[in-house]
Amino acid sequence: MTLRRATLRDGALLAELNYQLIRDEGHRNPMTVPELEQRMKRWLASEYAGVIFEETGEVVAYALYREQPDEVYLRQLFVVRNRRRQGKGRRAMEILRTQIWPMHKRLTVEVLVRNEAAVAFWRSVGYRDYSLALEILPDTKPDGKTHDRSAGPD
C-alpha cells in the first residue's frame, strides 16, 4: 500500500468517500457531497492534513487528521467498501503511526458508540476508552421518549 498527501485537488474525491463514511457509520450529518467538498477543502487549507492510501493505482483508504502540540486527532479513517476486511485499515494505521505521526504525541479518535464494528477496530489497533459523550436531543422528554408534536401537549 502506498500513500500520498491529500491536496485541495482531492477535495471532490475525499468528499465522496466522506459521504460514504457518514452513511456507513450511521452518522446524522445531513451534508451533501458538494457541501462536504467545500468543508473538506476548508479543512485541508487550514488545520487538517489528509493522506490517501492506494494499491495499484486504486484508492483504498484515506485519513484526515489534525496535529496539535501534544496530540494527533484522527477525524476520519475510511476504507472503501470493496476493500474492507482485508487489513487495509490496520495497515493504514500502522503507516500513520510509524511514518507520519510523531511517536511522542497522544493519539485520539472519536467513534459513535452504536458503531460496534468501529469501536472494536479502534480498540484492536491500540486505542483505549477515555470518555463518553452523552446527549439529549431537542425533541426528547426527560424519560427518553420522543415528543409527538402533532398530538398536542402531553
Structural class call reads alpha+beta
Question: Low-confidence parts lasting 5 or more residues at pLDDT below 50?
Answer: none
- Count of DSSP helices? 4
Distance N terminus to C terminus? Answer: 58 Å
Spatial extent as radius of gyration = 18 Å
Please identify, by name, the CATH architecture. 3-Layer(aba) Sandwich
Q: Let me know the average pLDDT.
A: 91
Characterize the largest beta sheet: strand count, sense, and whether it forms a barrel: 5 strands, mixed
Can you tell me the overall shape? Answer: globular
Describe the structure.
This protein has 154 residues and is α+β, with helices and mostly antiparallel strands. Helices cover 32% and strands 22% of the residues. The protein has a single domain, classed as 3-Layer(aba) Sandwich (Aminopeptidase), CATH 3.40.630. The longest helix is centred in the N-terminal third of the chain and has 15 residues.
Quick structural summary:
This protein is of the alpha+beta class. Helices cover 32% and strands 22% of the residues. Strand 4, helix 3 and strand 5 form a beta-alpha-beta unit.
Any descriptors?
154 residues, 5-stranded mixed β-sheet, single chain, alpha+beta
